[in-house]
Amino acid sequence: MPDHDLSEALRLRVAEAAATETALRIVGSGSKQFYGNHCAGEPLAMHAHAGIVDYEPGELVITARSGTKVLDIEKQLAAHRQMLAWDPPRFGPQATIGGAIATGLSGPRRAYTGAARDYVLGVTVVTGRGEIQAFGGRVIKNVAGFDVSRLMTGALGTLGVILDVSLKVLPLPECEMTLVFPCDVSTAIGQMNQLARHPGLSGTSHYDGQMYIRFSGSTHSVQAASAAAGGVVVSDADVPWERLREQTHPFFADDGRVLWRLSLAPATPPLPLPGDWLIEWGGAQRWLKSNTEATAVRAAAERHGGHATAFRYQPDAVGAFHPLSPPAARLHRRLKECFDPVAILNRGRLYAL
Amino acid sequence: MDKAHQSRFFAALRRVIPSRLILVAEHERAVYECDGLAVYRQPPLAVVLPETVAQVQDVVRLARDYEMPVVPRGAGTGLSGGALPCAEGILLVLAKLNRVLGVDPINRTATVEPGVRNLQVSEAAAPYGLFYAPDPSSQIACTIGGNIAENAGGVHCLKYGLTVHNVQSLVWINADGERLCSGGSGLDGPGLDIASLLIGSEGLLGVVVEATVRLLPRPAETAVILAGFAELAPAAEAVAAIIATGVIPAGLEMMDNLAIRAAEDYCAPGYPVDAAAILLIELDGDAGEIEAQTECVARVLRRLDVTTFVVARDEARRRCLWAGRKAAFAAVGRLAPDYYCMDGTIPRARLAYVLAEIQNLSRHYRLPVANVFHAGDGNLHPLILFDGNQPDELRRALDFGGRILELCVAVGGSITGEHGVGVEKLDQMCTQFAPKVLTQFHGIKAAFDPGRMLNPGKAVPSLARCAEFGMMHVHSGQLPFPDIERF
Ligand SMILES: Cc1cc2nc3c(=O)[nH]c(=O)nc-3n(C[C@H](O)[C@H](O)[C@H](O)COP(=O)(O)OP(=O)(O)OC[C@H]3O[C@@H](n4cnc5c(N)ncnc54)[C@H](O)[C@@H]3O)c2cc1C
């Protein structure tokens, strides 16, 4: 795969924008444009800054330019029987790794193998000052300096334009098996959290009276775990994980209601909010389709120590992200200022600060 | 700082925290003059030992108002001088905040105060078949607060991650004395990932007063493989080769001959004393998985001419094999009056090269070195042996250590994997990071702590210091050992 390094050109664009105080809107492939708050600005296209810079399977580390397609990276890794273990949602075949890291979203495996941020070893960014800065590195342990690589993950491009990322990768499991159980949501939540004691559990979901679970690992252990769990084995064509990860599952279709994402302690009992629910991550990630008041959704999440994101289809008046406490908001503002003093990068996409 | 200002501060301090929790007598302060890196010593102006979070807040607020530096401290086992006191500041010891607030077996979390010792968390989780994965060798003594501040690791981090991967949320006090919560009851929190910045920030950004950590189910079974090699190089090669097969061991540790013999003399774990190096490889899972993985590892080891190959399955034998590794620092410590423990990380593929270079440096500095380390993580712990009472040996040991860290950076690694920068590695930070990145770090520090009162002078060097350090390198005529090529 050829390496197209546009770092310097991108840096110049940002430096110019900083000098003229021109807002920039960072665009990978646009697959996750819906996510976060609306932000205006000249588009800064990243897709041409693409290529795998370094991949050493024995080190379990890959470094790629941010415009590289997630699919291309996954293809490379699969050739060496490795994977991106947080199942980055692509939401489109052109999705870039920069967008995956900037949104910090994770797929079905997340509850069991860790989130996007857990796999980011290093990033190179252009700050809002138009400076290229490298944080972290390519080694799996590194406590020198503040962990800016993780900070950039999920920052939605508000602190820097990601140029390159180094990611830890994991071996593909030798075997996977998905089982389905008919049950109601309370039973499912209880079951999922019981099953989480099995180290091979790698996916859980509940929707419309069906609980799906997945085991990963050696053939022997997957078979043993599946036999012990009971349930009906699901054929490869019917496993739900890709449809959940990509939100192509019919639940996620636009039907005029807001799609909420609630992040809660997994064993939290079902919340009394009107709407349809789809549960993932053993109960730690809950999707709600509802037109209930935003404040009611957020209050319900908060009562259980969690937070709620208006993920898709929300009206502009509803802020995408859960409001911050005053000291946390102040800290966010100061961090923004220290990376992007004139606020040109994805202004307002995370919070209006 | 003038005395009148100090006495006003202490008068105010006594109003918010009982006098018995404030230590000002010289002999009491002396107890706290250093952490685990005893070559740096400095008693603080006073030691404060709060018993409640509200007291922590009050102390931080007062310190801000009186512009008094605050150095947080847990158990003081840190190995980079992170908890070294400031002469003109207070040492905020969090050891009395030591309650396990709760274990939630269904959600698999534990909520603890910062002064809880690392091992206590796993002990509290054990009745539920759960454990807390990060297990530093110092786990009987070190605190969760200190672990968070250093992003501590342990022998099981290869598979189960470092502290940062196992902390779910933090309650912390900012430089204004306000209480914040970062993270959530679920697997993430709203907004920027502030908890990730706090973890590994060495007490520069805030004071952690509560942590909710993730607990993992105990694996069904465990096996430990002891593999001995006649040469260092194939042992080093085996590390990357095992991981390249797709097996992720729960632990993958290496010891060289000096460390092997020291451990064998100390507690007779049954290591081959004539081996140039051993690997300890822990595999866990169910019986079938362990069998398959053992076979896979054995194939790699045979190809690399392993000379000793022992598989320990029963608990007693496994414990015995690990005992040598766990006691290795203490064991090596008996070989010389002093030792200096380093903590660099490198890509696994460069292990053989770096170990050979360390041997060259050892000859050059005329100081022996033992290696006991987290090989699977590429995290080196060279232990440099010296005698601080011999003229020049301490300086040689410090220079030798500095060169090892520069070597780590040169091969694409880092100057610290888990012990932190503290005061010890400030100069090497200048090697690892460009001035503009250091400036960015100072910016982050200022965003959290505009008055720069939390653990000032640690972890991130001033640019002036780097300029001075750079001079030393540039003017090679003045280098201590100009005949060695620079990395
Ligand atoms: C024999 C030995 C073996 C060791 N093995 C390992 C190992 O295997 N892995 C490893 O990672 N480390 C190891 N260490 C190093 C050390 O134990 C760890 O760094 C540990 O995390 C320090 O914890 P502590 O409570 O002693 O912290 P301290 O030494 O008291 O403090 C360390 C740092 O944390 C800050 N701090 C402490 N508490 C707080 C708080 N509540 N809020 C904010 N900041 C705080 C301090 O300011 C300081 O910068 C070892 C040390 C020894 C002596």
Report on this structure.
The complex is a heterodimer of chains A (353) and B (487). Chain A is an alpha+beta fold and 353 residues long. Helix content of chain A is 26%, strand content 25%. Chain A has ten helices and 17 strands. Chain A has helices at 7-20, 70-79, 97-103, 110-113, 148-152, 185-195, 219-229, 241-245, 294-303, 326-339, and strands at residues 24-27, 42-45, 52-56, 61-65, 82-83, 120-126, 132-136, 161-168, 170-171, 175-182, 201-207, 210-217, 232-233, 258-263, 276-280, 285-290, 307-312. In chain A, the strands form four sheets. In chain A, strands 13-10-12-11-15-16-14-17 form an eight-stranded antiparallel beta sheet. A five-stranded antiparallel beta sheet of chain A has the order 3-4-8-6-7. Chain A has a two-stranded parallel sheet with strand order 1-2. The longest helix of chain A is centred in the first third of the chain and has 14 residues, at 7-20. The model of chain A has no long low-confidence stretch (mean pLDDT 97). In chain B, helix 1 (3-16) runs antiparallel to helix 3 (53-65), helix 14 (393-410) packs parallel to helix 15 (426-432) and helix 15 (426-432) packs across helix 17 (463-474). Chain B has a seven-stranded antiparallel beta sheet, sandwiched between helices. In chain B, 37% of the residues lie in helices and 18% in strands. Chain B has helices spanning 3-16, 26-30, 53-65, 118-125, 144-150, 157-160, 194-198, 232-244, 257-267, 287-303, 315-326, 328-333, 351-365, 393-410, 426-432, 435-448, 463-474; strands at residues 22-23, 46-48, 70-73, 90-93, 100-104, 109-112, 130-131, 167-173, 179-183, 207-214, 216-217, 221-229, 251-256, 277-285, 308-312, 338-341, 369-373, 382-386. In chain B, strand 8 (167-173) and strand 9 form a beta hairpin. The chains are: A alpha+beta (353), B alpha+beta (487). Chains A and B meet through strand 7, helix 5, strand 9, helix 7 and helix 10 of A and strand 9, helix 7, strand 11, helix 8 and helix 10 of B. Residues 35-36, 71-79, 82-83, 94, 114, 136-138, 142-143, 145-147, 149-150, 152-154, 202-203, 207-208, 329, 418-419, 455 of chain B line the site of flavin-adenine dinucleotide.
